[in-house]
């Protein structure tokens, strides 16, 4: 699962996909279709792999920028973004192959079971392990 916040001049929207690979581009049939004029038909791929999200530029004419620099391939963390032209794509959340959101714990914290004292013969306490 990948969840993005997409911001362009005058608008913003949310996008989410359960896929482990998302094609971003202008072409009809792209998983995440953008009207951004600087985007190529097949611009980049977002790939969830080994518990992280990678952005892979597909040789686009105008490039994919991360932290203001043109990239070929880079891993993104939650809250980081990439830019195509004037459109910013911010990674809000993702899940690895396990399907668990990284913002949620995999297992709930353990709560110890209550201890009850038992009385032995004549009302005397019995030691554990005896």
Descriptive terms for the model:
130 residues, mainly beta, Tumour Suppressor Smad4, 6-stranded antiparallel β-sheet, 5-stranded mixed β-sheet, globular
Write the layout of secondary structure elements.
Blueprint: E1 2-8, E2 11-17, E3 21-25, E4 32-33, E5 44-49, E6 52-57, E7 64-66, E8 69-71, E9 73-76, E10 81-84, E11 87-94
Parallel strand pairs: 3-4
Antiparallel strand pairs: 1-2, 1-11, 3-5, 5-6, 6-9, 7-8, 7-10, 10-11
Question: What does this protein structure show overall?
Answer:
With 130 residues, the chain is mostly beta strands. The protein has strands spanning 2-8, 11-17, 21-25, 32-33, 44-49, 52-57, 64-66, 69-71, 73-76, 81-84, 87-94. A six-stranded antiparallel beta sheet has the order 2-1-11-10-7-8, with no helix packed on it. It has a five-stranded mixed beta sheet with strand order 4-3-5-6-9, with no helix packed on it. It is globular and about 85 Å long.
Query: Could you say how many structural domains there are in total?
Result: 1
Widest sheet: strand order? 2-1-11-10-7-8
Helix content: under 10%
Care to count the β-strands? Answer: 11
Topology as a string of helices (H) and strands (E):
EEEEEEEEEEE
Summarize, please:
With 130 residues, the protein is mainly β.
